[in-house]
Specification:
heterodimer; A: Rossmann fold; Rossmann fold; seven-stranded mixed beta sheet; 11 helices; globular; B: alpha/beta; binds thiamine diphosphate; binds magnesium ion
Chain lengths: 326, 340
C-alpha cells in the first residue's frame, strides 16, 4: 500500500500505543501547522487520551520527564515540536539521556524518543530552521534517526517506540510530510542501522538523509534524463548508527561520491561521510568527494536569501556533474 | 501628568492597529510567507510602557513584537519591508516578522523563543546598572512562565537588584476576569501569575489591559520606581484575546476595524461585537474620551485618516523595496572589525 510520511508517523504512533501500555505521549503535535496531517493523528489521540500528557511550554522539563520515566520503566515519546526547540532541552538530552546507561555501568536503560520537525521548512528564519542531527551526532549514547521516506518514517518511529533500548532523537521534517512510498505491512523492516539504496546507478553515488532523499532522487532523475548520467542514491535512514559499509560499497561500485546534507557544511553529517570515504574508501575514489550542504550561515527569513542557502535537487545534480568532471 | 496627550495616545494605538491590519492583508495576498503574530487588542500596553521610557533605555520583545517596536518609534515602512523580507527592512530581510529589532532605538535583539528574551533582558539591565543610568523593559507572553528561563531570569534580577521591568502580557483572559487575579489558561497551575515573582521578593502589579489610562499610570509609576533604584518590578497585563487571533492564522473578523464602531455602529460578526463592547482597548478609550469631551468623533476620524495614510505609504514602500540579492545571505554572519 502507498502511504504518506505523515500517515506513516500516525500509523506508528497508533500501533505503538495499541501494542504497549508503557508508551506515553509527552506532547502530541507531531505534524506542526499541517492541518491535514494533524487529522491523521486524531484516532490515536481520541482512543489513547489517557496516555497523552498536557504539555506546558517547558521543553527542558518535558525532555527530562521523558528520560526519567524511561529510566523508571515507561517508553515515552517527547514531542519537542520545531527542531530548534531541542536546544531548550539540550541539557537533559545531551547530558542526561545520553549518559545514563554508561554512567550507571549498564544498569539503567533510557528508551525515550525525542521527536521534532527539524530543518529548513521555508520562512522559519534563524530560530526555527535548525537541523540538529550533526551536533547531536557528537553525543555518544544518542541514536539519531533521519528518515527520508514514508515507509521508514513508519518503521523507524515504531521501532524507536516499541523496540529500542536507547534514547532516540527522531528528526522529522515538515517538507517530508506529504512524500509517499510503498509499504508492505507484512514485510519485516530493513534493520535499523542499514542504509537503503533508493536507486541503483553506475556513475556516481549520491548519499542523502531526511529531506535530502527526495531531492537526491529528483537530481538522479534529472541527471539521467538530461545528461545520461546513472546516479545511485543511498538513503542513510539513521545517522547514528551510521551504515558506513553500504556507503563504502556503493562508492566502490561507482567510484564517485556526492554527499547531500541539510546540515551546515562544517562539521556536518557530510563531513563524517567524507571522512569515512577518505579513511576507508580512498582506493575506490576516481575523484575527490563533493559535499553539497548548507553554507555556514544562519538561516535568513527572506525567500531569496533562504533559497541561496537551500540544498536543492539542482545543486545536488550540479555537484554530481562536477564530480564527473563535466 | 500623563506623558501622552489623548490625541497622541489614540494615534499611537491606531498606528499599531492599522499596521497589523495591513500585515494580515499582505499575508493573505501571499506577499510574505510563514507564520506571524499581531498585536491587535494589546495596543495600549506597548504605548504606555514605551511612553514611560527614555531614549537610553532598552526594550526586549518576542514574536509578537510589531506593537512594541511601533510604540518605541520604529518606522512603519522599514518594519513592513522587513516583514516582507525586503532589502529596505531593518535587517535587510534576514529577520522577517519573528526577530524584528532596531538597535538604534534600544531594541537590540528579539527572540522568537518562548521565555528566551527574559535572560537577555537581565543583561540589558545589567548594562544599565553598570553605566549608572537607564532601565530595561522586557515584554513576554503568559507562556513564558512555563519555561525555566523565566525563573532563572527573575532570580538574577532579584539578586542583582537590576533596573528591569518584566511585562507579562497575559492575553487569554475572559473579560469578566480581567480585573481579578485568576489565571484561566490550561497549562500553568499558578492561580495568580503575580504570586510567582512575589515569592522571589519582586514587587508586582496587575493591571487591566483594556484600560489605557490605568496602563499609562501603572507604567509611569513602575518605570519611575525601577529608574530610582528600586530593583526589578513585574506587571501582569490582563488582556482578552482578540477574536482575530482565535484561528491558527490571524483573520479580520467583521473586516477592517471601523472607527464608527466606537460611535454606535455594530460589526456584522458576533464574537467581534462582544469583544468590542467589553474588551477592545482602543474603542473603550475613544468612548471614554468622547464622553469626557476630550476627543470627539471628528478629531478621531482625522487621526485615523492620517494613520491610514501613513500605513498605505508604508505598504507602498515595502512592496516597492527590492528583494535582497542572493549574495546578501552571506553578509553579517560576523561583525566586522578585528577579525580572527
Ligand atoms: C521555546 C519555544 N517553544 C515553543 C514555541 C512555539 N510557540 C510560539 S508562540 C507560543 C505560545 C506563546 O504563548 P504566550 O507566551 O502566551 O504568548 P502569546 O503568543 O499569547 O502572545 C509557542 C508555544 C516557541 N516559539 N519557543
Ligand atoms: Mg498568551
Amino acid at each position: 500500500m502507498k502511504i504518506t510520511f505523515a500517515e506513516g508517523l500516525a500509523k506508528a504512533i497508533y500501533e505503538s500505543l495499541a501494542a504497549d501500555p508503557r508508551v506515553v505521549l509527552i506532547g502530541s503535535g507531531f505534524m506542526g501547522l499541517n492541518v491535514a496531517a494533524r487529522q491523521m493523528l486524531e484516532p490515536a489521540l481520541r482512543e489513547f487520551s489517557d496516555r497523552i500528557l498536557v504539555t506546558p511550554v517547558s521543553e527542558l522539563a518535558l525532555a527530562g520527564a521523558g528520560i526519567g520515566a524511561a529510566a523508571c520503566g515507561q517508553r515515552p515519546v517527547v514531542d519537542l515540536s520545531t527542531g530548534s526547540f531541542i536546544f531548550q532541552a539540550f541539557a537533559q538530552v545531551a547530558n542526561e539521556a545520553a549518559n545514563i546507561h554508561y554512567m550507571s555501568g549498564g544498569q539503567t536503560s533510557v528508551p525515550v524518543t525525542f521527536y521534532s520537525l527539524a530543518g529548513m521548512r521555508g520562512a522559519g528564519a534563524s530560530q526555527h530552521s535548525h537541523r540538529t542531527q550533526a551536533m547531536l551526532g557528537q553525543v555518544p549514547g544518542l541514536q539519531i534517526f533521519t528518515p527520508g521516506g514514508a515507509e521508514d518514517a513508519y518503521g523507524l518511529l515504531k521501532w524507536a517506540l516499541l523496540e529500542s533500548q536507547n534514547p532516540t532523537v527522531f528528526i522529522s521534517h515538515s517538507l517530508l510530510l506529504g512524500e509517499t512510498a510503498e509499504l508492505d505491512p507484512g514485510a519485516p523492516m530493513l534493520p535499523v542501522g542499514k542504509a537503503r539504496i533508493r536507486r541503483t546507478g553506475r556513475d556516481v553515488s549520491i548519499i542523502a538523509s531526511s529531506i535530502m532523499v527526495p531531492r537526491a532522487l529528483a537530481a538522479a532523475q534529472a541527471l539521467e534524463r538530461e545528461h545520461g548520467v546513472s546516479a545511485e542514491v543511498v538513503d542513510l535512514r539513521t545517522i547514528v548508527p551510521l551504515d558506513r559499509q553500504t556507503v563504502l560499497q556503493s562508492v566502490a561500485r561507482t567510484g564517485r561520491a556526492v554527499i547531500a546534507d541539510e546540515c551546515h557544511r562544517s562539521f556536518g553529517v557530510a563531513a563524517e561521510i567524507a571522512a569515512t570515504l577518505a579513511e576507508d574508501g580512498l582506493a575506490s575514489l576516481k575523484a575527490p568527494v563533493i559535499r553539497v550542504a548548507v553554507p555556514d550561515v544562519p538561516i535568513p527569513f527572506s525567500p531569496p536569501l533562504e533559497a541561496e542557502l537551500t540544498v536543492t535537487a539542482e545543486k545536488i545534480a550540479a555537484g554530481a556533474l562536477r564530480v564527473l568532471g563535466r | 501628568m500623563p506623558k501622552l496627550t489623548v490625541a497622541e495616545r489614540v494615534t499611537a494605538m491606531l498606528r499599531i492597529r492599522r499596521f497589523e491590519e495591513q500585515c494580515i492583508r499582505l499575508s493573505k495576498e501571499g506577499q510574505f510567507p510563514g507564520h506571524y503574530h499581531v498585536y491587535i487588542g494589546q495596543e495600549p500596553t506597548a504605548v504606555a510602557a514605551c511612553a514611560a521610557l527614555a531614549a537610553e533605555d532598552f526594550v526586549f520583545s518576542t514574536w509578537r513584537n510589531h506593537g512594541h517596536l511601533l510604540a518605541r518609534g520604529a518606522a512603519a515602512d522599514r518594519m513592513m519591508a522587513e516583514i516582507l523580507g525586503k532589502a529596505g527592512g531593518y535587517a535587510g530581510g534576514r529577520s522577517g516578522t519573528l526577530h524584528l529589532s532596531v538597535r538604534e532605538l534600544g531594541v537590540p535583539a528579539t527572540s522568537a523563543l518562548v521565555g528566551a528574551s527574559l535572560p537577555l533582558a537581565t543583561g540589558g539591565a545589567l548594562a544599565c546598572k553598570r553605566r549608572g543610568s537607564g532601565v530595561t523593559v522586557v515584554f513576554f507572553g503568559d507562556a513564558a512562565l512555563e519555561e525555566g528561563a523565566f525563573y532563572e531570569a527573575m532570580i538574577i534580577a532579584a539578586v542583582w537588584k537590576l533596573p528591569i521591568l518584566f511585562v507579562c502580557e497575559n492575553n487569554s483572559i475572559p473579560p469578566a476576569q480581567r480585573k481579578r487575579g485568576q489565571y484561566t489558561s490550561s497549562t500553568l497551575p499558578a492561580a495568580r501569575l503575580a504570586d510567582v515573582p512575589q515569592s522571589l521578593q519582586i514587587a508586582t502589579e496587575v493591571v487591566d489591559g483594556a484600560d489605557a489610562d490605568a496602563l499609562a499610570g501603572c507604567f509611569e509609576r513602575l518605570v519611575a520606581e525601577v529608574r530610582s533604584g528600586g530593583g526589578p518590578r513585574f506587571v501582569e497585563v490582563r488582556c482578552t484575546r482578540w477574536p482575530g487571533n482565535f484561528p491558527l492564522w490571524p483573520e479580520l473578523p467583521g473586516g477592517e476595524w471601523q472607527l464608527a464602531w466606537a460611535y454606535g455602529q455594530q460589526p456584522d460578526h458576533a464574537d467581534m461585537a462582544a469583544w468590542l463592547q467589553q474588551s477592545d482597548p482602543v474603542l473603550l478609550y475613544l468612548r471614554k474620551q468622547a464622553a469626557a469631551g476630550a476627543l470627539d468623533r471628528a478629531q478621531a476620524e482625522a487621526i485615523d485618516a492620517s494613520v491610514r495614510a501613513e500605513m498605505t505609504a508604508a505598504v507602498r514602500f515595502a512592496l516597492d523595496s527590492p528583494l535582497p540579492a542572493a549574495n546578501e545571505a552571506y553578509e553579517h554572519v560576523w561583525a566586522q572589525g578585528r577579525q580572527a
